[in-house]
Amino acid sequence: MAKRKIDNRTFQDRWEANYLFTTIKDKPVCLVCGAGVAVIKEYNIRRHYETKHYEKYKDLDLKQKLQKVEEMKRSLVCRQTLFTKAKSKSEAAVKASFIVAAEIAKSARPFNEGEFVKKCMVKVCDIVCPDKKQEFLNVSLSRNTMAERACELSTNLHEQLIKKGKDFIAYSLAVDESSDTSDTAQLSIFIRGVDSSLCVTEELLGLKSIHGTTTGKDIFEEVSKCITEMSLPWDKLVGLTTDGAPAMCGQKSGLVGRIQEKMREEDAGKITVYHCIIHQEALCGQALQMEHVMSSIKGVVNFIRAKGLNHRQFKSFLEELDSEYRDVPYHTEVRWLSSGKALNRCFELREEICQFMENKGKDTTELRDEKFLCELAFLSDIVSHLDVLNLQLQGRGHVITDMYAAVRAFKTKLRLWKTQMLQGNFGHFPCCQTMAAHISPAMLPSAQFAEKINALSAEFSRRFADFEAQKGRFELLSNPFAIDVESAPTSFQMELIELQCNDMLKSKYDSVGAAQFPCFLPDTMPQLRTQAAQMLSMFGSTYLCEQLFSMMKVNKTPHRSRLTDEHLHSVLRLSSAQSLTPDFDELASKKRCQVSGLDQCAEYIRA
User: Which terminus of the chain is less hemmed in, N or C, by CB atoms within 10 Å?
Assistant: First the structure.
């Protein structure tokens, strides 16, 4: 008969009283010294007790040992609670340091600002809650820590974006390049992806530093690396928007040509390429051919603003006259709205400017010439209208169909203004109205201005021809209920009929609008959903890239030119994040908590 095996690897309750041991997470632990044993065997536990603690507790009977065990167990629970609280406070301190690092990065402050923030926190704590001072002191906000935290936050955002990218059914890219204060070329790449539920994610895909040439090949390689790092399929890439530079839009060796060639190799279909709408709108203004007026205004503004004495005296002169305005603004080419502001202000202050310049001995014959003033009035009015359109096109999250609708509306306005200008109607040109009130309306060259408007309209039609070619696709998203089914592509006709005959969907379209409506398209309309996803993913402009470069100029200044590429990229990813938020809890839990007082607590538990 085989002997029955006894399992000695299970902790026995009697060992608590006999050897002063208990179990924590299925591991035997001595209640006296906190030591454990490698193997759960009675021999090991008895040997530890007899060699370490037998002499101290040998005179206790069973009842006294049981009481002692209960006391030790209660004490152990208290120590464990104390350690847990200390660990919790430690994680809170680490989380706080991550939050402060994120705020410093978003506000374009240097990393050593964390030390200043900590001093302020401690000073406030001394007054408001002095008993909590140690907890504030535990928050590490040193320069190195802030730099490290910024990199970890950026990595966390990038990981989230990679995870989201796996669900994209369509995505587009916006690419632009600019140089920082140390003349390093920075290539910004933004992605706009749409998942199966038609939710849009618009984030920075990558910011790449290029220390050598910036040819189309160099740019393509960096863009290709970003797509590979994200594990994005080329067949889901549907759109590319650039600033129109030769290295970007070249059909052979430029970024556009190389991406199209890559997609042909991958058998990924066609990609729609756009030149930034905002850039094109700004370039259209050159069709007015009124540089002589702008040049004269630049000369006036530079005379007033370039020398400190002239500037001070001009502002004092305006104060003495109790003028509505107190200064004239500079005009900068890279700032799209500055020209309109400068022209308007100079027109409003034309008399004051003439008086001031005459006092300085300057010739003001041109500034007092009626023909020049009429041209200035017209240019000021038309540029103001262009600025209004520019503001409509700026911002995040714009759907490309809405952006082009604004351009189409402006083209219609141009036709109206041309007709009214020929009739001598200046209802939409306030500066021209002012001039007509001071001089004979017949003196205003209305026919000449109408030709200028006609040239501007023709330039808009020429530059936005690529958008006009996509008009049919745009209407599928912007107004699917008004499309003529017979003229629509065959693949969409059946679904369009079902859509246009569905009163419930028509009511939903009227209530939520064109941008939100695609989310309510049923799965029984896969072609329309796919088309909507592609349109929603399109970038209409490189505004996000321009905005990023503005933040880059604020962060990497001549006084902070040694900021490394890694830290610059981390800061800008945090600053530009829109739909993603760093997971502070996850980051804090991964860190080894090393806070003052924790080691003492651990020593107390081991005692």
Answer: N
